[in-house]
What we know:
By secondary structure, the chain is of the alpha/beta class. The chain contains six helices and 18 strands. The chain has helices at residues 15-25, 41-48, 188-197, 212-215, 237-243, 257-265; strands at 2-6, 31-34, 55-57, 62-63, 86-89, 95-99, 102-109, 117-123, 129-135, 141-148, 151-157, 166-171, 174-180, 183-185, 203-206, 220-223, 250-255, 273-275. A ten-stranded antiparallel β-sheet has the order 5-6-7-8-9-10-11-12-13-14, with helices on one face. An eight-stranded mixed β-sheet has the order 4-3-2-1-15-16-17-18. Strand 6 (95-99) and strand 7 form a beta hairpin. The longest helix is centred in the N-terminal third of the chain and has 11 residues, at 15-25. The protein starts with a strand and ends with a strand.
Amino acid sequence: MKVELINSLDYASFPGISWQIKQVKNGQSDELWLATPHEDAYQLVQELGLAPHQVYDVYARAYLSDDDNRQNGIWFADLPVPNQAQIVVNDDWTKSVTSVGQELAQVRWFVNSNRIVQAVSWLDNDGVIDYKDIYQRDGRLFAKQYFSEGTLLESDFYLGQDQPQTQDFYFEGQRNFVYANGEKYSSAEAYVADIGNHHPENEYRITQVGRELDFAPKGTTLAFPDTVLDDQGNVLGNLVAILKNDGHPVEHVQVTAKDFALLKKAGLPLKRVSVFKP
């Protein structure tokens, strides 16, 4: 099975990722895999013209489903709040849960929705975020985040289920480890890579050279439908490192004929590089 692996739907407009999505839409690739979960994944996928069953959420270890839209979501007036509290829309159009003049929480609605609640950030007595509830557009719980003096400590991803499916833990602002499927992983990237490595029959492809290189399963193909050059006109440093490292999980690189000539002129190893027509 041919899999287009991307970091997040938030970057769907990036040229390379847009090209990957197109490959799934036109049947050249079978599925789109998401390394980062998104509370509005179903809506975004629909807008991109993909069928939910073509999109696999690695964090949830599940495909999107039409069931993800079976409810109408939490309308702002139906959000459970403490006794005597109310939801107000402020002059700057931010939304708050208030009680006796005190702001208890900050509320965010989904874009292009009829006041459907997306997230609620609950505040402590000092007005600093204490914990945050994030909802899917269908009203099911997406994640809970816990803070200490405004610093994120833990993210529990429910992903529409009754119990957390994965848990991210943080120390001094950095994600320290991930607990998922009964196992502990050194990072979210290690978890995503492990899921991919458990399905070696798949052909994985990425188009970005950022976080993607850390969660790429063994045997991944890196494609450049756009260019191999950075903003200064130099060959991307991460690509150079890949071509010089035979043990890298990225085992194959696809470039245009023009870029192949550039890599050859730069004197880089080309044994794992092939020419393709995006």
